TrEMBL record, chains A, B:
The gene is hisI. Its EC number is 3.5.4.19. Mg(2+) binds at D75, D77, D79. Gene3D superfamilies: Phosphoribosyl-AMP cyclohydrolase. It is found in: Cytoplasm. It catalyses: 1-(5-phospho-beta-D-ribosyl)-5'-AMP + H2O = 1-(5-phospho-beta-D-ribosyl)-5-[(5-phospho-beta-D-ribosylamino)methylideneamino]imidazole-4-carboxamide; 1-(5-phospho-beta-D-ribosyl)-ATP + H2O = 1-(5-phospho-beta-D-ribosyl)-5'-AMP + diphosphate + H(+). GO terms for cellular component: cytoplasm. This is Phosphoribosyl-AMP cyclohydrolase. The keyword Hydrolase applies. GO terms for biological process: L-histidine biosynthetic process. Keywords: Amino-acid biosynthesis, Cytoplasm, Histidine biosynthesis, Hydrolase, Magnesium, Metal-binding, Zinc. Pfam families: PRA-CH. One of its GO terms (molecular function) is phosphoribosyl-ATP diphosphatase activity. Pathway: Amino-acid biosynthesis; L-histidine biosynthesis; L-histidine from 5-phospho-alpha-D-ribose 1-diphosphate: step 2/9; Amino-acid biosynthesis; L-histidine biosynthesis; L-histidine from 5-phospho-alpha-D-ribose 1-diphosphate: step 3/9.
Length: 108, 108
């Protein structure tokens, strides 16, 4: 049985990888505390904890770019979350679909 | 131009999401310091910094389950890395292909 008690909140936080369910594209990484994790379970949309603003935020609350939760996974160590979502609009505040829009090239 | 100077190592570390290039499956999350990041650029395989053992590790060095780097991205804030890899064998030390093999179900 998998449950919230299996998740280790390190200093109160766990990193959550957000992946678009339909395309497999990794959209962003943000941090959840236990309260935001529970809000996600309750509401079916993603909630995070902002370390800089020290408050909960519901992704897309202002922009309308909500993330509807499809599946939630946690890793072997219980210290990282993976959330598959249906993304409305763009995930990134820059307007890009994913926050990972810049590539670093290896010299070969 | 995207380069290592754009990456913010928070307390010396940056979380790196490892994704299988071929399938899009998210395999694991681990942490890199600047030295391990440079080793990845040099060698073309993933290197991390173990916080518990306080040393660098080359993923798959012992098991043979190496990760060959295909593409490296960083996010809008410069504080998370996404690495697309060709995974040899299983990514997880449990023998599972991905570390995210356990699902938490929402009650609907």
């Amino acid at each position: 049985m998998c449950k919230i008690e299996d998740i280790k909140f390190n200093e109160g936080l766990v990193p959550a990888i957000i992946q678009e369910a339909e395309t497999g594209e990794v959209l962003m990484l943000a941090y959840m505390n236990e309260e935001s994790f529970k809000k996600m379970l309750e509401t079916g949309t993603t909630w995070f904890y902002s370390r800089s603003r020290q408050k909960l935020w519901n992704k897309g609350e202002t922009s309308g770019h909500l993330q509807y939760v499809q599946n939630i996974y946690y890793d072997c160590d219980g210290d990282t979350i993976l959330v598959k979502v249906k993304q409305v609009g763009a995930a990134c505040h820059t307007g890009e679909h994913t926050c990972f829009y810049r590539e670093i090239k290896r010299e070969k």
